[in-house]
Amino acid sequence: MSKVKIAAIQILKEETKEKNLQKAFKLAKEAVNKEVDVLCFPEKWNIKNGDPLKDSEDENGPSIKCLERIASENGVYVLGGSIWENQEKSYYNTSRLFDRNGNCIGIHKKIHLYKFEKMIFTPGTLLEPCKTEFGKVGMTICFDLAFPEVSRILTLKGADIIFNPAFISSSGIENWHIYLKARTLENRIPIVAVNAVSNERGETWPGSSLITDFKEGYESPSKLELTKASNKEEIIIANLNLDYTRKIREIRLSERSEIDKKIFENLKFDKMNQT
Q1: What are the sequence ranges of the domains in the chain?
Q2: Residue 242 phi, psi (nearest 5)
Q3: Residue 175 and residue 173: Cα distance in Å, rounded?
Q4: pLDDT in tens, 15-46
Q5: Strand (E) positions, the chain?
Q6: pTM above 0.85?
Q7: Class of CATH domain 3-272
């Protein structure tokens, strides 16, 4: 399967978790009616404001069960944005990938914690693509993508697509879009980046989700194909030809110098391979 249809669900957050779960299910149904293969939600889509110590869930919590149900009842892959999880008395900002049967087949714990998150959450230590029927999926959360090593490691480990659920306020949108385009060009890999629409803590979160891909027929230089969202609740959809991006990625990676390769191969990634 070389082509995959992706839906990025830019949710307008409600005041309660229950209402957000109901809305997520409704929007997922709308996306499924357009015959998509994968749904992606934003970071912290299930809670408006909230307290990580009180609102974190275990693996049997209502948000994870909602995502399992969306996947299994609709027969689609679901990249569950991210939610706050409580695992063995530690707190994580966690993204889960569910297959068409609702089974969790991949977990990414946010590695690069932003501002207040450092006081509460434990950073993840695993950076490994997840196998699916259409290729390998690289999982990141928001601030992870600000660091070029993350997407490069995922790419060199065979990722065919990278997801970046995020929670970006108005002041950070421009930088976020620059990072997304740069990481896509650096690695010749499509990125699905999803933001929420909300007003929290005196700031505005304006959506502006972005799917970055490549126009076919342009190998050198490659040309970006951008699917953009507005600042309102909506679903954006992109058809990705992963065979084409594999082709241009192979060309780009083969152009690295021997010095590049030696330096990268000598770096130690032990911490990125711990479970």
Answers
A1: 3-272
A2: -70, -25
A3: 6
A4: 999 999 999 999 999 999 999 999 999 999 99
A5: 3-10, 38-40, 77-79, 83-87, 90-98, 104-109, 130-132, 135-139, 161-165, 191-194, 197-200, 203-206, 210-214, 224-228, 234-241
A6: yes
A7: alpha beta
